[in-house]
Recover the amino acids of this structure.
């Protein structure tokens, strides 16, 4: 049986950053993830997707973010159980928990943190009759390597951040990018909407709003799509394409976690965000996209904040008889992550009661 201080379900960015925050408190972590490598969706689905909301990084690829996080937590020697899904949660008499995976691996910890992102997921597919015939033959629902689309004619469908961000990114990669959205308004970040609009005005991308792709054409591979306009007086548009990428998001499922007795709202775990991001089960926390509360923002940086706050309260559960004094990482005399002593820059101490 694997024993640790904090057992983290999910090795995406939020789960990985939890290792760092816990490590500052000298707490050991072990992570479980159904994927064969750390990083969650950032590694598995869109490692080459640019991310714009990480502080101090105007732009960073998702895969690079994961690499940086792995480097950051290296001194804390976290354990990993990869390629296995957390299946059952059993509370012990002393309040701790045993989590068993689908392969029978048992993990024992006083604190369990669910950082499973969206949970298990599958892409939302548009209702086009023959779309399955072209999957991996010109149709893709995620972008792992944008170089595949270099000098290609690409049509992207969708109105959210992914559709906008990839249209902007591929404008400098593909020979032709067309973004199709069934509405005139986009759901993405205002900055991305403005960038896409500017690229459309300059001719770098084609923007077709109040329209949707309704037909796919080709023999063995995709070579064309039909775009139907909401305006019935406007004739449908035929586009010669190499690739069609519908980005309508993912359909998330909590999987076995949904059977753990947690309070669930709209496929997300309710937490007490006013204090510690704890669930209705004592000692079980949920952070990142998997949780929900009033005013929740599903951003990676929100998950990082939740991880930092949660670790402070996890420390109290693990060490009920100790009083922790939080110090900034710039405090003089604090032992460095590598065991060395770091030179003081300023000394600011905040007591945690």
């Amino acid at each position: 049986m694997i024993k640790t201080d904090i057992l983290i379900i999910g090795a995406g960015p939020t789960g990985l950053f939890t290792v760092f925050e816990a490590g500052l408190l000298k707490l050991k972590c072990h992570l479980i993830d159904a994927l064969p490598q750390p990083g969650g969706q950032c590694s598995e689905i869109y490692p080459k997707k640019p991310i714009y909301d990480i502080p101090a990084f105007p732009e960073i690829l998702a895969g690079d973010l994961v690499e940086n996080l792995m480097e950051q937590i290296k001194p804390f020697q976290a354990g990993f159980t990869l390629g296995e899904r957390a299946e059952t949660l059993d509370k012990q008499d002393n309040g701790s928990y045993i989590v068993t995976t689908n392969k029978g691996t048992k993990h024992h910890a006083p604190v369990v943190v669910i950082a499973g992102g969206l949970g298990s997921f599958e892409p939302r597919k548009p209702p086009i009759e023959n779309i399955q015939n072209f999957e991996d033959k010109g149709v893709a629902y995620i972008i792992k390597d944008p170089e595949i689309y270099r000098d290609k004619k690409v049509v992207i469908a969708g109105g959210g951040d992914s559709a906008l961000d990839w249209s902007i990114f591929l404008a400098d990669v593909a020979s032709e990018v067309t973004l199709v959205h069934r509405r005139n308004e986009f759901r993405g970040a205002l900055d991305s909407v403005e960038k896409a609009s500017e690229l459309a005005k300059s001719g770098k991308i084609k923007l077709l709003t109040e329209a949707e792709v309704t037909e796919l054409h080709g023999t063995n591979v995709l070579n064309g799509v039909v775009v139907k306009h909401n305006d019935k007086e406007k004739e449908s548009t035929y586009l010669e394409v190499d690739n069609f990428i519908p980005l309508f998001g993912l359909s998330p499922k909590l999987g076995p976690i949904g059977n753990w007795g947690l309070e669930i709202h709209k496929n997300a775990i309710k937490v007490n965000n006013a204090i510690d991001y704890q669930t209705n089960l004592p000692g079980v926390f949920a952070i990142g996209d998997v949780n929900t509360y009033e005013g929740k923002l599903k951003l990676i940086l929100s998950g990082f904040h939740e991880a930092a706050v949660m670790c402070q309260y996890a420390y109290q559960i693990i060490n009920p008889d100790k009083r922790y004094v939080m110090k900034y990482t710039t405090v003089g005399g604090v032992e460095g992550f590598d065991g060395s002593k770091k030179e003081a820059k300023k000394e600011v101490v905040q007591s945690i009661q």
User: Anything to note?
Assistant: Helices lie at 13-24, 41-44, 62-73, 161-170, 190-201, 300-318. The first strand starts at residue 2 and ends at 3. The radius of gyration is 23 Å. The chain is about 20% helix and 30% strand.
